[in-house]
């Protein structure tokens, strides 16, 4: 199995290490030709507008859209979730996304950098895992075909934090930063 990691900006090394620890080839994707023979892709956390800009300058924007339309399995964490969402709330005026996951997300929905936090999450099919939220997007609404695998109540009601729609997955948190590979394994098992 080959699961690429979009390697333009963000938590690339951490995702590559996690995948390799699970015995999965994890090529770093930086140009369109590297998308061709992948079974899946991870779009890491980082800064969503920076990643969007780099997708354009690297020539990956349209080829990745085509692979998503063809059914490429993808896991977007934090900024990756933003880039996969249908609607971005509080984004920049020029903010765009692939609309591959029928969710509306709010950028920095749990607060800015100072409001970052860690908490325990109950994940369907996995159990309790650590959730690392860094300037995390908050899923404000989901479409009827979106399955919620974990949610978190940060004091103002529970919000989904791990969702999937077919082969497209999104996490508000950073599973690659915990040393616990179960979220990655759950994604890999679905491919």
Dominant shape = globular
The assigned structural class equals: alpha/beta
Question: How confident is the prediction overall: mean pLDDT?
Answer: 94
What is the count of DSSP helices, taking H or I runs of 4+ residues? 5
Order of helices and strands: EHEEHHEHEEEEEEEEH
The strand order across the widest sheet is 2-1-3-4-12-11-10
Terminal-residue CA separation: 9 Å
Q: In terms of per-residue confidence, which ranges show pLDDT below 50 for 5 or more consecutive residues?
A: none
CATH topology: the name is Rossmann fold
Task: Please characterize this protein's 3D structure.
- By secondary structure, the protein is α/β, with parallel strands linked by helices.
- It has a single domain (3-190), classed as Rossmann fold (3-Layer(aba) Sandwich).
- 23% of the residues lie in helices and 34% in strands.
- It contains 5 helices and 12 strands.
- The strands form 3 sheets. A 7-stranded mixed β-sheet has the order 2-1-3-4-12-11-10. It has a 3-stranded mixed β-sheet with strand order 5-6-9. A two-stranded antiparallel sheet has the order 7-8.
- Strand 7 and strand 8 (127-133) form a beta hairpin.
């Amino acid at each position: 199995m080959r699961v690429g990691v979009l390697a333009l900006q963000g938590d690339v090394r951490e995702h590559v290490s996690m995948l390799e620890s699970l015995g999965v080839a994890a090529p770093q994707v930086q140009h369109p030709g590297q998308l061709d023979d992948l079974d899946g892709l991870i779009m890491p956390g980082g800064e969503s507008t920076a990643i969007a800009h780099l997708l354009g300058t690297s020539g990956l924007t349209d080829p990745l859209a085509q692979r998503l339309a063809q059914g490429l399995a993808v896991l977007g964490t934090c900024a990756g979730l933003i880039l996969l969402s249908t609607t971005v709330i509080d984004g920049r005026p020029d903010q765009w996304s692939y609309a591959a996951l029928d969710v509306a997300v709010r950028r920095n929905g749990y607060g800015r950098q100072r409001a970052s936090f860690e908490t325990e999450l109950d994940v369907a099919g996995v159990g309790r895992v650590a959730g690392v939220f860094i300037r995390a997007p908050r899923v404000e609404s989901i479409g009827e075909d979106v399955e919620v695998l974990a949610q978190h109540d940060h004091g103002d009601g529970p919000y989904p934090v791990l969702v999937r729609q077919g082969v497209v997955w999104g996490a508000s948190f950073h599973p690659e930063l915990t040393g616990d590979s179960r979220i990655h394994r759950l994604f890999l098992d679905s491919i």
